[in-house]
Amino acid sequence: MKKSINKTVLYIVNTVFGLIAISPILYALAISFMPPDQIFSYPPKLIPKKLYFQNYIDALNAAPIIKFIINSFIVSLGVTVGQVATSCLAAFAFSFFNFRGKKILFIIIIATMMIPAESIMISNYLTVGSFGWLDSYKALIIPYLSAAMGIFMMRQYYLTFPRELYEAAKIDGCNSFKFFTRIVFPMSRPIIGSLGVYTFLVTWNQYLWPLLVTSKDSSRTVQIGISMLQFSENQSFGLIMAGIIMVLMPSIIIFIFGQKQLIEGMTSGAVKG
């Protein structure tokens, strides 16, 4: 009985904090469907009297939001695929291979996580600029094709695999590539899903780097493009909120469908050294 009460109280507390956390998004959603006179009415309205879609039409006319969403999707997908591939391969080498300097190299990779991204952003900008990559997908994707966080996550997961499994596969004539593609990779779907969701959301929400390397509307991502609504001639809170909701929806959908994999992957291999 006491356990049931504690569980109910926990659910209630979590529900309250969850509603508090999403209340700004719900309020932005409500404002996006309100006409201007209702937004500034007193007392403030929390629910629109009727759905007003003109804000979304005005937002689409004020800025090429669909193009920004497509750009962000291409960049986020490219970075996600690249990080999953490089992280899996690097983690496999650190987990199953023995080579000189293995521990030192892994420590160096992990140490890069302590370097603030802002401290190397100018040098990266000069590098991609010298390659002529500005205002292109290459500048937005290639510098992020590998990440120490992904390598660390995958390595921790691979260390949970019994070493005897790899030795038995070698005895049966299975080389390292086949062992990786036919055994390790299929068994890594939970952690791959976690890394994929995490990387996609982080890339989708990038602001400073896309701001540096893009200057044309045709190459901007959503986080940069949405700021154009603040300077549009028909500036209004309803228009801005409509644009924000359109930008948020893809990442929210990805998180809803991938939260299980994200949680499972983050906790898998957490106690393995």
Automatic annotation (TrEMBL):
Pfam families: BPD_transp_1 (PF00528). Belongs to the binding-protein-dependent transport system permease family. This is Carbohydrate ABC transporter permease. The chain crosses the membrane at residues 12-34, 68-97, 104-127, 139-158, 179-201, 237-258. It comes from the Bacteria. It is a multi-pass membrane protein. Residues 69-258 form the ABC transmembrane type-1 domain. It is found in: Cell membrane. It comes from Clostridium moutaii.
